[in-house]
Amino acid sequence: MATTLPLIQDGTVRGACPHDCPDTCAIITTVEHGRAVRIQGDPDHPVTQGFLCAKVNRYIERTYHHDRLTHPLRRVGPKGRGQFEPVSWDEALADIAKRLAEVISTHGAEAILPYSYAGTMGYLQGESMDRRFFHTLGASRLDRTICSTAGAAGMRMTVGANIGADTESVGDADLILLWGTNTLTANPHLWPFVLQAREKGAPVICIDPIRTRTARQCDEWIGIRPGTDAALALGMMHVLFAENLQDDDFLARHTIGADQLRSRAAEWTVERASATTGIAAGVIEALARRYGRAKNAFIRVNYGLQRHAGGGMAVRTIACLPAITGHWRHAGGGVQLSTSKNFSYNVTALHRADASPPVRTINMIRLGDALTLPHAGVGGPPVKALVVYNSNPGAVAPDLNAVRRGLAREDLFTVVLEHFQTDTADWADYVLPATTQLEHWDVHLAYGHHYATLNRPAIAPIGQALPNTEIFRRLAHAMGLSQPWFEDDDLSLIRQALDTDQPKMRGVTFERLMEHGWVRLNLPRPYAPFSNGEFLTPSGKCELYSERMAQMGLDPLPAYIPPYESPERDAALVAQWPLTLISSPAHQFLNSSFVNVDSLRRGVGQPECIIHPDDAAPRGIRTGDEVEIRNGRGAFTVTARVEDGIRRGVVWAPSVWWTKFSRDGRNANQTTSQRETDMGGGATFYDNQVEVALA
Ligand SMILES: Nc1nc2c(c(=O)[nH]1)N[C@H]1C(S)=C(S)[C@@H](COP(=O)(O)OP(=O)(O)OC[C@H]3O[C@@H](n4cnc5c(=O)[nH]c(N)nc54)[C@H](O)[C@@H]3O)O[C@H]1N2
Ligand SMILES: Nc1nc2c(c(=O)[nH]1)N[C@H]1C(S)=C(S)[C@@H](COP(=O)(O)OP(=O)(O)OC[C@H]3O[C@@H](n4cnc5c(=O)[nH]c(N)nc54)[C@H](O)[C@@H]3O)O[C@H]1N2
Ligand SMILES: [Mo]
After folding, report:
1. DSSP sequence for 30-42
2. Does domain 73-147+343-520 have CATH number 3.20.20.60?
3. 150-337, superfamily in CATH?
4. Which of 257, 348, 554, 632 is the most buried (most CB within 10 A)?
């Protein structure tokens, strides 16, 4: 295999947290006699600041977990029963290669579907050899939309790219809005900067239908009706313009469409915004004034609020606010959805997309349809082979009943690369053991700061586990693919990823990464991306009016797009299923990762739902009762907790449970839908009406 550098037997090894989280921590692993004994956050890293989250503190427990997959497995029992026998790597790879070749000769390579997401965010183990393999075969492409594409499109249309205010300057903000994000759970390394600002007097306000652990720590909680954030932002704009709180100079010099936006905002009186959002008019007015009078407000908008029909437009509308007030002028001011587009690793070299013939693309959130509808729901051959890695769609994909019907197909050949026997692995024909971050090389971007991070392996692979890169390399060889790009070892892949002349990547070299573990992008300090305008849109301006959106048939101005499952769009459905289910992550889980780590699962307890007393009482529900959450797509059972820290009409089921760890073998995604957001084809997990009843 690849590693030409020896492992450190005793000492410390620098690495990167691989998980799908904005923080991408720099980690230091202590190794004794070749065994990892301790993991800690790098105290010198400006964002990690020496601490890790509740989950990754358990990464060693997860790595040496007694349930780790240690050798390839072949199915022996009926599909989905999880009955397997061990086989050798050679045998497994030879048989998989034969089965894939049969699919190609009978149905064409597009009948093969890769399915991966961000189980690791690393470029090597996440998008290098795997992409080369599927591109070279000519397999169907996967549109990786499950998390962030709606909001990313909203940012792109407005400021030109998914970048924003710098986390390290947030301490200088004079007002902080945590908008649709559970910071203490999902982005905890932002918190020290929030506290810094607060110590200097910045109020911290949380806008969330749930009074989360984050909202409890804030100065104010605004319990908005789910899916209506654009209406709140439009109501704020109304006040800003009506009370002359806008920055005319910034608007004139750095935006397009200020006059049209002003007319649009004029339609959104606070009364109208209040009726839509369920927030008192006085609260909207006070928020707008506070925002308009601030000089340097930081809005942390995160992905939670874009999991609704109008998710792209909601993010876009919020992203217009700092151009109206000119807060982009100052470091720390503005909006941050992500910082990821400041990174430009050489993905062209890693992916080798040029090796692929033109093929169809399948949206990952429509996996249920892709596996069960004729022509995979999009045209072309049925999906006959599914190769899953870095993802657990058997738990996290929407409309799980449809997904399971697909995975149960006897004529579907399924291969799963995993650390553990997940809900998805149970449906596999072959399960292949993959290494964890302590066992392989990688290189990472971040989406909540501006440091590139290297991950060096700390220990030898557990059992016969192999890195994803090596599994796809061997699979390519087993299929007789002899292109030179399958010969690159992992260190070569890292060098290829870094081989770019993008100015922001200048100084991010292998040598510096080896020495320090992490390197800041070549950005000024302090960094205020749009202080002089210089937006990355076609016009170079903040596009309050977007010609591109007009061409896409979308409203070119900020607008409120009601949820699919709302009184505005489907009153009958809401009458039948009156409660909105939000299934955002539990504090101790990372989507479905860590659910099988006993100490963390004990911390969460059991699958539960939080429901407001006014919703619980008429249903006869009390804390501790077993309840069924149901809609037309499916149902799952949880224990109720009656609390007023949630908006009336909203129910929270902390997620994402492995179905095999729940009482009834089901989870929240039994009820979620495959519908797509307005932009980006994103998932609408929280656009989900249900009823809750005693089980
Ligand atoms: N501990 C932990 N950390 C994580 C993750 C995890 O699973 N566990 N997941 C990681 C990943 S993949 C991601 S994408 C990020 C996600 O992190 P966030 O972007 O913070 O997203 P969510 O946790 O999905 O939702 C955040 C909040 O949005 C609220 N919300 C839901 N709908 C609306 C709405 O319409 N309007 C408003 N204003 N609020 C709404 C929810 O109640 C929730 O409290 O976190 C990352 N970090
Ligand atoms: N109801 C509901 N559903 C949701 C969400 C929600 O809030 N509510 N959140 C959504 C969001 S934001 C996201 S991003 C998705 C995330 O969905 P996924 O990307 O599927 O994330 P995880 O559930 O963490 O599963 C990742 C899997 O990858 C495996 N893995 C990790 N590293 C490696 C590796 O190096 N090699 C291999 N082969 N495997 C590896 C882990 O063991 C784990 O089982 O879920 C979405 N689903
Ligand atoms: Mo995500």
Report:
1. EEETTEEEEEEE-
2. no
3. Dimethylsulfoxide Reductase, domain 2 (3.40.228.10)
4. 257
User: In angstroms, rounded to a whole number, what is the distance separating the alpha carbons of residues 562 and 575?
Assistant: 16
User: In which residue are the tokens 């409120």 written?
Assistant: 560
Is the full-model pTM beyond 0.90? yes
Contact residues of ligand 1, CB 6 A cut-off: 20-21, 147, 179-182, 185-186, 207-210, 212, 224, 226-227, 229, 302-305, 308, 582, 584-585, 587, 589-591, 686
- CA 117 to centroid of ligand 2, rounded, Å: 7
* From the candidate CATH numbers 3.30.365.10, 3.10.310.30, 3.40.50.300, 2.40.40.20, the one assigned to the domain spanning 571-694: 2.40.40.20
In angstroms, what is the span from residue 359 Cα to ligand 2's centroid? 26
Q: What is the pLDDT of residues 522-535, one digit of tens each?
A: 999 999 999 999 99
The residue written with tokens 């007015």 in the block is: 285
Q: Cα of 116 to ligand 2 centre, how many Å?
A: 9
Residue 130 Cβ inside 6 Å of ligand 2? The answer reads: no
Instruction: Report long-range pairs for 217-221 (Cβ below 8 Å, ≥24 apart).
Output: 217/184, 218/178
Q: What would the pLDDT profile of 423-476 be if each residue is shown by its tens digit?
A: 999 999 999 999 999 999 999 999 999 999 999 999 999 999 999 999 999 999
Candidate from 582, 611, 612, 643 with most ligand 1 atoms within 8 A of CB, to mutate: 582
Q: How far is the CA of 148 from the centre of ligand 3 (A)?
A: 7
Atom of ligand 2 nearest to the CA of 590: 24
Average pLDDT over residues 343-347: 98
Please spell the DSSP secondary structure of 386-453, one letter per residue. EEEES--HHHHSSSHHHHHHHHT-TT-EEEEEESS--TTGGG-SEEEEB--GGGS-EEE--SSSSEEE
pLDDT, residue 5, reads: 85
- Fold of the CATH domain 11-63: N-terminal domain of TfIIb (2.20.25)
